[in-house]
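Weekly structure sync, notes
Attendees: PL (lead), two postdocs, one rotation student
Agenda item 3: pending single-chain targets
PL asked that the sequence for the first pending target be pasted directly into the notes so everyone works from the same version. It is reproduced below exactly as submitted, 132 residues in total.
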Amino acid sequence: MPELTRKLWFSTLLDAAMHRAWLFRLGRLDAVGRVAHFLSETNVRLVSADLSDGTRFALGITQADISEICGITSVHANRVLRQLREERLCIFRSSLVEILDVEGLARRGQFNPAYLYIENKSGRPDIERPTS
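Predicted structure, written out during the meeting:
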């Protein structure tokens, strides 16, 4: 079944690409960058599943969950989310994320969505793509 083999191999490659991006995020970015990268990636993935309009999405996790995902303390996660709000990049409140500046948030998290291999859907806000 060549088609099934191709899909399974693609899934493996995608998992490996996401793993490399997460290692980069944890190893090279400061706390604000880690959270910005996480929220940018989550937004792109939810847009592809039609669960985000590109600027707003429900995220059923707590600040403590975000801190664990990004390798920071829950107190520091609170400060980071406040900083992102003060920089007018995004707001996380009551399990709802509102991204005020999609490109700015992606820049702050050094997020490049190419590793997700998601096609840009027409009618959706464009997120910076690599030029090569």
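Discussion points:
- The chain has five helices and three strands.
- Strands lie at 56-58, 90-93, 96-99.
Action: rotation student to compare against the earlier draft before next sync.
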